[in-house]
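Researcher: Here's my situation. A collaborator sent me these components and asked whether they could plausibly form a single complex. I don't have experimental data yet, so a predicted model of the whole assembly would be a useful starting point for our discussion.
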Amino acid sequence: MRRFSHATRHVVRSTRVPGVQLHHLAKVQDPRGGLCAGEFLRDIPFVPKRFFLVFEVPNGKIRGEHAHKKCHQFLVCMSGALTVSFSDGEKTGSVKLKRFGQAVYVPPGIWCSQKNYTRDAMLFVFASDYYDPKDYIREYKAYLKWKARMSPL
Amino acid sequence: MRRFSHATRHVVRSTRVPGVQLHHLAKVQDPRGGLCAGEFLRDIPFVPKRFFLVFEVPNGKIRGEHAHKKCHQFLVCMSGALTVSFSDGEKTGSVKLKRFGQAVYVPPGIWCSQKNYTRDAMLFVFASDYYDPKDYIREYKAYLKWKARMSPL
């Protein structure tokens, strides 16, 4: 345990896919323990209506593999490591979350999946909307058609 | 890993201190892994503006030890175990969170502290307001005076 206080600020970086952001949550470490924090609308670009935590994913399993029409998501690595892949139908990107506090902001209209969960991986997700099956696009072909309708030439 | 799906609903129980609630988050376990979820205003009594995660708390350290005047908090055990104690100045209660998904709702005006963190304990907290040092009452005597002013005979 460190004897001095150590703090990092919230950091946001863009990715190869427009709108998708890589975040590092702010951390404070002092003799009483560690604290990692974030504020909605200030650090995280929306206010959540829902959250969920994914855990004990068997190695080899892929989760996600869908897009949301309206829902924003913010994926935070809580422990272990996993890979988050994302695409807007043209550009694709991928990031390995391997430290507690690393996060990905996924705006609506992005195809996203998660894989290579380590045994101890825990992924915490904030969502801007309540669960609504109508907001999901679960087939990639249907996603590309939907994207084409949303972005006419 | 279980081969069948297993789900539990969100459960809320009252405690000895009026307003303070013990929650168990809903869980779904299936061959793709585990999922634990909650919805704000439906399961959790407020919409958060802030969250923080407490981790690597040295054994013997006590955290919290304050009350909020206006801010609601929802404390979720993410891993390990810890004890949450709470009081309204008259009645006191305590609960050991020892399973992932066990949580305590702490309304404004409750004195609250956390102790007996195990080495692997992680406590996730949702707060209804942004950080504001003026909302904290950090001394128990001052808290009792504030309570007396809030609840005149």
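Model: Some features of this prediction you could bring to your collaborator: The interface with chain A takes residues 1, 29, 31-42, 47-58, 61, 63, 78-79, 100, 117, 122, 124, 130-131 of chain B (CB under 8 Å). Chain B is about 5% helix and 45% strand.
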